[in-house]
Amino acid sequence: MSEPRLTLQFTVNGSEQIIEVSPTRRLLDILRSDLNLTGPKEGCSIGRCGACSVLVDGQSTPACLLLACQLQGRSVQTIEGLRDEPVFERVSAALVNAGALQCGYCTPGIASTLTAALRNNPTATAQELEQALYGNLCRCTGYTGLRQAVAELART
Amino acid sequence: MSTNDFTPRQLNADNFADRWQPRPDARSKARGEQRYPTDELAWPGLLHGRILRSPFPHAQITGINVDAARELPGVHAVVTAADIPGDNHYGIVFRDQPVFCTDRVRYLGDALAAVAADTPEIAAHALSLIEVQYTELPVLGDPAAALADGAPPLHPGGNLLDSSLLEHGDVEAAFKACAFVVEGRYSTPRQMHVFMETEGGVAVPDNQGGLTFRVGCQSGHRDREQLASILDLPLDKVRVIGLATGGGFGGKDELTMQPAAGLLALRTGRPVRIHFDRRESTIAGIKRHPVELVARTGCDAQGNILAHQLHAVLDTGAYATLGPAVLTNLTDHAAAPLYRIPNVKVTGQLVYTNNSVAGAFRGFGGNQATFAVESQLDKLAAAAGLHPAGLRKRNLRTPDDAGVEGQTQQQPCDPRLLLDAALASPLWENATETDNRRWLTGVGMALGAQGNGLGNGLPDSGGARLHLSAAGRIELAFGFIEYGQGVIAAVEHLACEYLGCAPDDLDIRLGDSSGPDSGPTSASRSSVIAVEALRRLQPQWRAALQDIAGPHADDLAPGRGGLCTPSGDLRISYAKLAKMAAQRPVLKVHFDFPTGPDATPRGRYLQLLIASVARVAVDRLTGRVRVLQLHHITAGGKVIHPPSYLGQIEGAAVMGMGMALLEDVPMQDGQFLLDNLDAYLIPTLADAPEQRVDVIEAILGGDSYPVRGIGELGIEAISPALIAAIENATGARLHSLPVRPTTLLTAMQEQHP
Questions:
Q1: What is the pLDDT of residue B4?
Q2: Is the pLDDT of residue B101 over 90?
Q3: Which of B198, B215, B564, B648 is 20 to 30 A away from residue B419, measured at CA?
Q4: Under 8 Å CB-to-CB from B608, ≥6 apart: which residues?
């Protein structure tokens, strides 16, 4: 008996992908193991920590929760595909200048989530940006630097 | 800044503009380009390892059969204790923890076997095919059960792993002379480190019988020794590279996946990756010791503390790891090191159970003890009708007083300075305002003391290597691991300060056991080691470069880009010096961590101080506590890299807030009642308070040791400050952490029935 396979056609960082996968393969494994996109990090595997956040059709989503069978025709962006965007440049500069990271393991998820929030609402207030980050855990910083970065992004 | 200026100064980008720069790895981390152990996926021929763990917290093993697992297609190796070439045991203090169990399992994290397979899925399937027969044994679910008569011994020496006694004076006689005596029973939780990156990495064979580990760890050199012993390899056949990793906090101090991955890599001749998922990290990972503390403290009618007694029982779980060292540090802190008390008796018991293994965790037992001690001070002040700060001020030690074990210490400053600054905090304004009827607000404070280094005369040395490369790069190597704390930023700043170079001249190499041994990345010791190393290297480096430059170089000194004139003009670049050199300099230093002048060092010599002030709001309907603001005053030496210093204090405070208000891994009969972040909650951005950190950089006695490690300071006093703030808001004083809303609500109702 052979394992069920799925021909998955979707977009990753702007390029069309057609891959044969198990229908229950997680998006996180497809990205990290199959496509060598290691920017999204695994933290809890149950959608609670936000370290694996990627943008699916423009919305920040934990990549550990989506399966291959749920990705047909959709567009996925990882931090690797965001780096050249001006909005992302602003986000990463704000994180760097505010000292908003230490070990940095949660940072790709935070930077991706902030990029989506600002893209979807360029005039987002600091409070709205903070609310977008409530699902992104950080164990190192105590969040004060992150809050400063968010305030800076809301101001500029 | 004058070295005599002991005025606290707010640490922020404006006040510290001259030193406020991004850490060297900030940009790559913000762009998601930093590589972590979990990203070691691209090795050719990589196999995926998994470890089989016990289904029972306590059982005898009567048989194990791995044949079916070995025959599964895609499986390349299945290993058990029978395959361990060397010592099947490890542990930093005592080697009592089996790599793979043979006759008995003592907790749910115990390992029986490991497999390496083509995919993680096949590896998981193979584990399910391993047959182990067990006979269940009685579970020792807490220290009382483990110490009860007739309890089965978990280890040959019995269930009392270690005990402590610190005594001076005569507490019994002194209590009789006290006008006021307060008692308290305190408990603290089994806190989990929750580094965002779990334990993991890869073991790579070199095809000459040796192995390289690329892992998340806290001491490449010490891990190498343990791994060489387990794998029966000469030290030079084992290389451990501690990669930049996603958090440590003490939880990666002990070996984790390395023995199993190493053995599988040797067996298969292929790279083997093992990365714990969060569930495995919860079950097999180290925790903070849950501690039950019973304290009694008394003072005379004027508020002079005459006697203090404390007994602590620590649940260390199934194996020792660093438990005995945690007990020593807890005992030291339980003796109220900030206060001058003539009669003190502290006793402690470190007890094996069938629970999660407890070991190193930021604070290292000190913060659990400080919670009880500072709470006792508040209770005593209330009993004696004194202001909590007044009682403290009357009894604070002076910087010249000996430590609690009679040892010489180097205090940063008079602790009264911190107390005064805490009392002047703006948080006290509108302390108990109630702008609506639902939320009660309150402010509280506590003091904490903390030491650097392994302490107690334990072997504690470190070193560095400084080298001019053929390309003219300044290569500076330490054994430290960068796990987020910012040691890379500290080393960069210190190197530029002591060697005169620019950041661009430097290549910093960290965490490689084939490089210099700097000692473990723990005990807030790295910054001190880095400064001491660079102080020693500075004159040698200058002389070595002048030597290359030849005669007439006497007034040239290492500077930005190369040897410079006294006015700073570049004369000979490092690249040119590298070409001119007949032999390029390789300088090595190795020395002991400063332990002071005592013949027999006890406790810790280099000391730091903190005062934490907390403002909280308590929901009268639910008993939920929100932390609104935290204000810390620290005396921890010179601030090397302001964003890292700030991040360490603030991050430790929020971690301590988690311990006080949220975090616990509850266990029942050796079973974990949760195993992931859906039920183990840590503070989020929504919970994070506003914070302010004021620093006293000056240090008494000038610049003999101008820098202290501050990685654990911020967690020291946060729990008692929060408990005092909750009492200030509600009138209810709590003794058990974390504070459960229902417990607080009940206590509030008892206050106002």
A1: 65
A2: yes
A3: B648
A4: B412, B449, B450, B451, B452, B524, B634, B635, B636, B637, B708, B710, B713
Structure tokens given for B224: 């190498």
Q: Which two tokens stand for residue A47?
A: 């959608």
Identify which of B33, B38, B484 has the shortest CB distance to residue A102.
B484
Q: What is the mean pLDDT of chain B?
A: 96
CB contact under 8 A, B31 and A45: no
The tens digit of pLDDT for each residue in B295-339 reads: 999 999 999 999 999 999 999 999 999 999 999 999 999 999 999
For residues B192 and B287, the answer to whether their CB atoms sit within 8 Å is yes
Low-confidence ranges of chain A (pLDDT < 50): none
Q: Are B526 and B487 in contact (CB under 8 A)?
A: yes
Please give the structure tokens belonging to residue B181.
């005596």
ipTM confidence: 0.98
pLDDT value of residue B2: 44
In DSSP terms, B607 is beta-bridged to B451
CA angle B591, B594, B596 (to 5 degrees): 135
Q: What chain A residue is nearest to B486 in terms of C-alpha separation?
A: A102
Fold of A82-155: DNA polymerase; domain 1 (1.10.150)
Q: Give the CATH class of B461-592.
A: alpha beta
- Does residue B435 surpass a pLDDT of 70? no
Per domain, the residue ranges of chain B are: 1-11+410-453+602-753, 461-592
Are the Cβ atoms of A49 and B196 closer than 8 angstroms? yes
| Of A36, A93, A144, Cβ closest to residue B650 | A144
CATH superfamily of A6-78: Beta-grasp domain (3.10.20.30)
* CB pair distance less than 8 Å for B678 and A46: yes
Question: Do strands B104-105 and B59-65 pair parallel, antiparallel, or not at all (unpaired)?
Answer: antiparallel
Contacts of B247 in chain A (CB under 8 A): 103, 105, 139-140
User: What does the DSSP 8-state code read for residue B717?
Assistant: S
Rounded to whole angstroms, how far apart are CA atoms B424 and B636? 20
